[in-house]
Amino acid sequence: MALIGGEVRRIRSWYLGWSGPAITEIKVRRRWPGKVRWMRILVLNWKDVTHPDAGGAEVYIHEVTRRWVGLGHQVSLFTAAVPGRPRHECVDGVEVMRAGGRLSVYREARTYYRRHAAGKFDLVIDGVNTRPFGCPDWVDDAPVVALIHQLCREIWFYELPLPVALLGRLVLEPMWLRRYRDVRTLTISRSSLRTLIEAGLRDVRLVPVGRGCAVNDNVVKERTPTIMVLGRMTRSKRPEHALAAFRMLRRELPDVQLWMVGDGPSRGGLQRRSRSPGVTFFGRVTDAERDALLTRAHVLVVTSVREGWALTVDEAAAMGTPTIGYDRPGLRDSVPPAAGLLIRPSPGALAQALRVNLPRWVAQPAGRGWNGGATSWDDVAVKVLDQAMAELLSGSGPSGRFEIGTSGPVASPDVK
Length: 416
What we know:
Rossmann fold, alpha/beta, globular, 16 strands
């Protein structure tokens, strides 16, 4: 049943009947009288948390969607295939459907929607990781909300050959974003919000970042001065800057050590080139191992060219570890609230900041962790849903209308 113009009132009454958890009830009552019934939500993202290259964006979607399920909503995630994982499974209550690879997942998502999902979802979340799914072009029966952590911008020139980087930065990214000019877009930092507005998007809203680990009340540091790098080892993260600063610092502090924690395409080359004593590569670690290492380290170093936020900064603070980060988009948002230090982006400036601050942090280590700018994932899930629901209840889908499918579970076809 199409809902156009005044008929949008029917969708409001349809949703104002389910008695959900108190936190959702309170949140919604402030804007609409009544309570909110369950929704059927489809999320599109090119990776999920089981993907070997999963990062912060995948953690964000996983933590938010599984809480939506806990609030009574039905959530499906369409994502790329993962070696060793089934095409269709349930992960923490979220229906996960996998098909396609890094590039073909976008075509597979469109095919899946047209064949199996049209008319069966009340809301579509388009997770944009450099390349969007283009949902505004082919979803015309449900509101579309984009979730963009950051734009690629300078990252093109770090990760791709120059001709392709120029094409991406000057042609592809602007072309893709034009489709989202009037689409409700959610982002996680003021840096990203400004960049998206500068790119021509007109309806950008800020949503918070979540942190899963609890504040550590019993922090015990290494006896040896310890620097830590945490995250994906890619060219745009510039882990070689940390190695260069470490070599400079070691001339004055010969007992200092550097922990490189994480995996990625740059790891092998870094290990081959790094013959400095005191450097340890841990590879990818579990959350528990990550927290244990952060608790023992004296400082986290973040040298990215651009971030959406950099959740590792908040994870470090919770373990009693300050951050020295480059003064770059995203890090400007996360480092100061976590009592960290922003510096000029260069190995020399990093070495100098470590030279000045590391001895003090070793002599007077924190006894417990502290909170940064991130909040609880429960709060994030409600606030993201609140922003998305505002778009849903406004009736402003991609074509000014949307369909309500039949109530009950959405069919789960074998994705091919």
